[in-house]
Each structure stands twice: as C-alpha cells, then as structure tokens.
Amino acid sequence: MSEVATGTFTPKPGGAPITQQVVAQALMEAKLMLRNGEQLLLAVVIPVMVLIGGVTAGNAIDLDLGSDRGLVDILTPGVLALAIMSTSFTSLAIATGFERRYGVIKRLGASPLPRTGLLAGKVLALGCVQLVQLFIIGGVGQVLGWTPAAGFGTVVAFFLAIAGGTLAFAALGLFVAGVLRAEATLAAANLIYLLLLAGGAVVLPLTAYGAYGDVARWLPSGALGEAVRTAFLDGAPAWRDVGVLLAWALLGSTLTARTFKWE
Amino acid sequence: MAYGDKTAVDGLTLSVAEGSITAVLGPNGAGKTTTLETCEGYRKPQQGTVRVLGLDPIADRKQLLPRIGVMLQGQGAWSGVRAMEMLKHISRLHAHPLDVDELAERLGLGECGRTPYRRLSGGQQQRLGLAMALVGRPELVFVDEPTAGMDPQGRRTTWELLRELRADGVTVVLTTHYLEEAEELADQVHIIDRGRMIASGSPLELTRGGATATVRLVVTKPFPPGARESLRKALGEDTEVTLLDERSMRVTGRADPTTLAKVSRWCEENDVLPESLTLGRRSLEDVFLDLTGEKLEHV
C-alpha cells in the first residue's frame, strides 16, 4: 500500500463568516436564476411584453381605466408588481422544488451554511433579481413616458410594497414547493401566476375590475399591485395593502413552517 | 473519536479510530446509507446514541458540520450549475478551503470545469461530490459509495486520494458494496447485513483462515447431481466442500499439492472440465458468504 503524506489535506476545518456564506449563496442563486431561460422569460421578458403591449394597445383603443393619470403611469407600477410576484413566488417555488428534487438542499445541509443562512441567501437573491427587473422595466417605462411621483415618500412606499410583497409571495412559494413534488410545483406555480396575472388585479388597478375589485384587493396580488401603484402615483405608502401583504406573509410562513421538508 | 449507533433498522455498535479508513461493507439495502446519514445528522436515531467527534449530530449540528465532509450518493448540485462553479461555491462556505483548481486537477475534473452538472458523466459527478466533501478541509469525511459507477481508472485515482487523506490525518468512513475496495483500503471493515453488524475487524483478521487454504473450482457446465458429496468423499473427512452456485465450488482444507491433485483427479473421473482452479487464502467474499449465505456483487 503506497501512502504519501503530502499535507495537502491536513485538516483545517471551519465555516466562513456567516455574512460571506449568505452573500455567496445569494449570488449563486441569483446567477442561476438569471441564467435560466425559462426563469428569465418569467422575470423580465413577459413583464416587458405586457408593459409595451399594454401601453401600445391601450393607447390605440383609448383604454379608460377610470383615472386621470396616463396609461403608462398606471401600467408601469402594475408590471413592476407583476415582476416582483413572478420572482418571489413562481421562480422561487420552482427553483426550490427542483433543489429539493436534486438534493441541493440536502447537500447544503451538510455544509456550514445554516438553514437560516440559506433562507437569508434566498431572500437576498430575490432582491438582486428584483433590482435587475426594476432597472429594465423602469427603463422601458421611462422610454414609454412614465413619470413616477418624485421624492423620498415614493422610495419608502415602494420599498414597503416590495418588502411586503416579497415576504408574502416567498412564503407562499415555499409552501407550494414544500408540499408538492418538483413537477407539480412547476405546474402549480405557473398556473397560479397566470391566474393572478389575469384576475389578480396586479397589472390593472382594482377600478378596472368593477365589483370584483373589492374581492381582489384582499388577494396578495391585488394588494401588491395597489401598494406599488399608490407608491408611484401618490408617493405615499398604502398602509392597508401593506397590511394585507403582511397578513399573507404570516399565513404563508405559518403554513410553510408546518409543512416544509428540506429534503 | 467514537460513535455507537442504534439505527431504525436494528441495533449496531461501531466505533472509528482517528486517522484511519473504516469501511462499512454490505449488500444493497443493508443499511449502510442509513447508518451514515444518522452520523451526518440527517436522521434521528429512534434509540441509542450517536457521537461524532464527541458531538451529537443533531443537537450539536452547528458545531459539527464545519468539521465533517460529506459525499452523498449521487446528485447534490443544481442541474444548470457548472462543475467548478459548484465546487467554488461550496469552498466559499468554508473558512480555510483547499485550492479548488488544484483539487479539481487532482480529481481529473480540470476538463469538465465549465460543463453543467446535468451533462457530467456519472463518474465525473461522483468525483465532484468527493471534491465537495473535501474542499473544506474536514477532520472526518463520510463517503457513501465513492466509486460506484466509476471506471477502473477513476476508481484507482479515488483510492489513492483516500489513502492520501489518511496519511494527512483525515479520518475516512466509507460505505461500499465492493469487497475489493474494502480489502484494498480499509484499516477496519464492518460488515453489515439487514441493518445488523455481522463481523468487524481488519481485512487480515477477517480473512485469516489459519493453515487452511481455499481452492475455488469453476467448471464449464453445471455440476452433475451429487457432485458435492462425491468430491467430499474423494478428498477425505477434514475437508469442507461448499457449492457456491451451479458451476462453482469451494474447497477448504489443507494447503498442500495433494488437495489440488485430488480435485483434478475428481474432475477427470467425473468428466467435468474445469474453467478455472484457483488456490488462495480466504477473501472477504468467502467471509461474507460464510456469514450470510449470500453472495455480494462483484467489482
């Protein structure tokens, strides 16, 4: 038996500082999300198409959404809300479903990265992708003539809307990924996204839905849509909608905590 | 360092010496992976205690994880992640990781560094899994079936690496259903079957058969009826003859030319053509066969 001590593998174990681990995890997940064609379609291409198509077609037929504001000023925040929803809910659910399937979560479970670090990394990764979405969709909106309310109030209100929406949809997404198999998660997450896109009052304001709008405003999609629209139209937080989002976040995380299995 | 373990499968107690290679050997479904996963903290033992590096794998998971390396049986990476990207990611979770390029080179992963995980061959995925287990410079590594599905070249490379780990003071616990692997590598072998430990010892201890020798006879056609009894009669009382399958028998008896000559003569008299007639010490396979009455998979 040949045996050469080279010292290469001399033990020197230890976990990296937790912030380094979380940042590494976040960058890795964000990179994988932005590199995946289907995810990119969901995160950027569809929202941009909805925005351009909606504004062009709406102007062509003189669409009236019951507001004195221009169509682009109403649709751009709605599309931003849609993008936040697609990333926090659909992309996260699908990615997590397949991470469970491929044993990624199991593998990371044997690394120094703790569960809370993994969760923090996921939320941070969502933040990174949302930043990319904000720049692209915001940029396209500007080209189409979007003039958001200026000032510090807008920034605070938008941040509250994003935070509430991300928490609510991420909790619900993890719930779906935790109870269903990977393929079923893929199907369910896409289906729910499409249903909310059409009837969730996310892109179009509540006023466009008539009486149903009173129901839709209690949906996480409707609340997110309203919160982002209020931020950019009025430059102020929509406290009730943010509250609705936080309630959904609470419900989602309770369900997830009860049902989620990491492997 | 020691762990005593009672798994859900059945009670088994085993301990591992620091800086050694321990093989947990057994057929598929014997409970090898369950045993390992209990030590890694993935499973909670229903009864009994497990201590790894003196720590409870579940209660002290946080302290334990940075100190151990784990190679899972297959998968464990995003399907779209590139091989080196994955290895680098795991290395960033550790405080003093190995140089990833050197490690990849050692494991023959240099050429497939940019290949997405899903397009790596089975052997490449295995080697990446081993690299991920080692990159954090652990004191103790658990490797589950490290060479399953590898070609002989890959298997040799892996064996060399595991020996080098031991030489550098790393404790290695591996599962395998390859007897050759356990025989080649391990300081201690624990044979488990259906969740129970059936034998423990160094390969030499396990295979020591005293002055007796083993003659293995493989023939071209199935033996005629009553062949075992007639060969036994021809060889004399102090010899043991076991029918391994319809075309092979094992003779355990005195290690001398007479035994061999008698076996040859018996073949001639019974019109049986030997395909091979080999003389040797007991292998782990013989030990396993004696203990369980079943054959293990061959390499």
Automatic annotation (TrEMBL), chain A:
Keywords, sorted A to Z: Antibiotic resistance, Membrane, Transmembrane, Transmembrane helix
Compartments reported by the entry: Membrane
Top-level taxon: Bacteria
Predominant place of localization: membrane
Membrane topology: Multi-pass membrane protein
Keyword Membrane found: yes
Membrane is among the record's keywords: yes
Domain ABC-2 type transporter transmembrane: 68-256
Protein name as catalogued: Transport permease protein
InterPro entries: ABC2_TM (IPR013525), ABC_2_transport (IPR000412), Nod_factor_ABC_transporter (IPR051784)
Transmembrane parts of this sequence: 40-58, 78-98, 119-144, 156-180, 192-212
From TrEMBL, chain B:
Database matches in InterPro entries: AAA+_ATPase, ABC_transporter-like_ATP-bd, ABC_transporter-like_CS, ABC_transporter_ATP-binding, P-loop_NTPase
CDD domains cross-referenced by the UniProt entry: ABC_DR_subfamily_A
Gene3D superfamilies tied to this protein: P-loop containing nucleotide triphosphate hydrolases
Matches recorded under SMART domains: AAA
Superkingdom field: Bacteria
GO molecular function, one term: ATP binding
Record's keyword annotation contains Nucleotide-binding: yes
Annotated protein name in UniProt: ABC transporter ATP-binding protein
